[in-house]
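A reminder before we start the practical. When you read a complex entry, don't treat the lines as separate problems. The point of joint prediction is that each chain is placed relative to the others, so the output describes one connected object in space. Small molecules and nucleic acid strands, if listed, are placed in the same frame. In the example below there are two entries. Take a minute to note the order of the lines before looking further.
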Amino acid sequence: MNSPASLQAAVPGPKGPGFVRALTEWWGEKPLTQLAIFAIVGLGFALLGGNLVHNMARVGLTPGFGFLGHAANFEIGEGLIAYSAGDSYLRAITVGLLNTVRVSLAGCILATILGVALGIARLSSNPLLSRLVQAYVEIVRNTPLLLQIFFWNALFHALPGPRQALAPLPGVLLSNRGFFFPFIADDGVTPAILTSSFLLAVLVGAALKWRARRTGRSNFKRSAALILAAAILPVAIAAAFGATPAIDLPRLAGFNIRGGISLSPEFMALLIALVVNTSASIAETVRAGILSVSAGQWEAGRALGLSYGRIMRLIVLPQALRVIIPVMTSSYLSLTKNSSLAVAIGFPDLVNILNTTANTTGQALEAILVMMLAYLALSLAVSIAMNAYNRRWALRERSAA
Amino acid sequence: MLVTSNRLGRGLGYSVVLAGLLAGTAAWAGPTLDAIKQRGSIKVGVGTSPGFFAPDSNGKWQGFFVDFGRALAVTVFGDAEKVSFTSSSPQQRLPALQAGEFDILLSGVTQTATRSFKLGFHFGPIVFYDGQGLLVKKALGVSKAAELDGATIGIQSGTTGELNIADFFRKTKKSFKPVVIEETKEFVNALESGRVDALTQDASDLALRRIQLGKPDDYVLLPERLSKEPLAPAVRSGDDRWLEIVNWTVYATIQAEEYGITQANIDEFLKSEDPGIKRFLGVDKSLGEALELDPKFAYNIVKAVGNYGEIFERNIGKKSKVGFERGYNQPWSQGGLLYSPPFR
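Here is the predicted structure of the whole assembly.
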């Protein structure tokens, strides 16, 4: 017959004296070892931190972020918000951050479009098309991104100067000073008219969708006509009062081209390099995703008499997305972080501005911290957005099953 | 500022700062001089510009600043070879010095108040008086900086030039578009490809870059100088004796030129009756003993690398490939700015 003690020994789970057992139940396996390791790691960080403050004091640096408010006496080539030499470092860094966001966001969107198209083309039954895409993917994936950035930068710098700018389309000028596109004229009226057109169209579109959902009926042609009418209405009213929306065309003035909207060669080089590079990995992801959908799904689609395009759009891609989205997230994350290579060609991204900041203030450590936090925040934002999107698809899948 | 191309450098530079700042006493094992003596050689940070600092065909570093590095090795060890040179980009060199990677920067650092007070560097005597210039395409027809209103200007990051040009355009209430490039090669390419209208940098550096361009005659260095760029050896704070060794090593080359002492005729001066020259060359040992240096340190320096004028002419002077005028860089007695305090 077993004694209570030997019974207890046979039971799996926490053992030992009451205190350790209570701790184990609350915290998990080996609580004391965990605590000890935690203390050692904490001590290590404390030592490093102490040394840091001590050493910074020795070289005459005061740790802190006070410098963010000081005047930054350098110029920045381009940005989404107004900045001039003499504004604060904080503003300069914000300009850099927005430039990083701008190139990353545009990069993610374009890389997705190109990558999905390439991924589908890669599976084409036309051997010329699929081989071409394969060659593209292999070349792009097997050369360093930095090299590709230099390549695009050299290519765009080899464009003619502003006076001899290429004009592939009317109103579009390509020169080594930048790519110029027509844009809404900032004449005080045009932006207002076009904004109201856009808002009205969105409003009508939303109303039509709500109605379609309620009645279960929809008429594509009639909806499109209504939305178009909503968009034209403000323009017509404005025209009746004598105000026509104007388009600002780029034109040569002095050293440079003025007017329209311009994108610098560095921005374009970085954007295209990132898009081309990331689209190759997205293409492979998409291909893998599509191949993961069983052949039976295709056959079922064909049995229903659906065209290739509709089978792809309605049956295969929604299922493939389950596989594609998580991998895509990491593609987006690398694109965002790879944008920091901008510094090599002189695009004023976050790293570029923080390098200059560190150099002029001497606050290298703080600059690195800001850099780390900014990239962490950007990456987390991408992850959160992508996870939310992923959940949406996963849920739909389950409810449909 | 004189520059090098080392892309990995940036990352490296930062890791070095981080490591240096975190590593506690490692970088601060004691005064710089003790570390140098223990190691048996001086670690010098330089750039890469022919004439100022560049390895020759045998991989041996040569140049104006390199010679001052050798002179330092003579003062400390009595041997011009006990020194190692490493190139460092403008962006990474100051953090690297701060972190103890180098004992001294001889990479043409501009002496500024911020660098002295806030960044914890000390500067030795100014060895090269420079000013920021503008290199423009001749076809542009520009003759002064003020005519560059609205122009696109290439700037190298990590230099005082980045701040000077912004100051200049703010002062003149004109505008410009900067393209800030870290990499030296990309910086020069930007002008050649027409991406920028002008490059701005220390005039001496631009003069060198101009020679390296495909068609140097298509470009002109504007005569105007936007700033004062006194280039001086930089050391980290915390070792006064090391700073003094740097000071008096440079002064020795300047004083030798003032005396007319050269590598070739120095031995004749050993017989001089001038008590000042006797002290300077260590014939009278009292000065060296008081300084706790080899009494013949000045003699050894001149014997090894020559006086200031010889260093200048050999590397960057009229007869060298670089072909600079002495300008301000001659002894005060000949109308320049070089002036050594007395050796006594």
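Discuss with your neighbour: Chain A touches chain B through 49 residues (CB under 8 Å). What might explain this?
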